[in-house]
Amino acid sequence: MSWSRVEPIVALALGIAGIVMTSIGAFAHVAQLNAPGAAAIFVGGAWVGNVLARRGVHLFPTRETDREERKS
Amino acid sequence: MPTREILWNVGDLAVAVMYGVVILQTLLLAYGATNRYRMWRSGKPYGPVTRIGERVKAALGVALLHRRLIRKGYVYAGVMHLFIFWGFVMLFVGTLIVLLEADIARPYFGASFFRGTFYLVYKVAINFFGLLFLVGLLMAAFRRYVQVPTKFKRSLSDDAVVLGLLLALGITGFLLQALRLAATHDPNAPFHWVSYPIALALSGVDPRALEAAHTGTWWFHMLTTTALIAYIPVSKLFHMFTGPANVFMRTTDLKPVLAPIENIEEQERFGASDLVDFNWKQLLNYDACMRCGRCLDFCPTFNTGKPLKPRQLIIEVGAYMARREGMLAGPAGPLPGEAGVRGHDLTRPGEPTIRDVSLPAQLIGEVVSEDELWDCTTCRACMEQCPVLIEHVPLIVEMRRSLVLEQSRFPQDLVVLFNNIERNGNPFSFPASTRADWAQGLGVQELADVADPAALEVVYWVGCMSSFDARTQKIATAMVKILRSAGVTFAILGKEETCSGDPARRAGNEYLYQVLAQQNVERLQHYRAKRIVANCAHCFNTIKNEYPQFGGQFEVVHHSQLIEELVAAGRLSVPRRLQPENFAYHDPCYLGRYNDVYEAPRAALALAEGSFVEMPRRRDKGFCCGAGGARAFMEEKRGTRINQNRLGEAIQTGADGVAAACPFCVTMFEEGVRALNVEERFQVRDVAEIVAAALDKQVRPDPATETASA
Question: What secondary structure letter does DSSP report for B304?
Answer without folding.
Answer: G
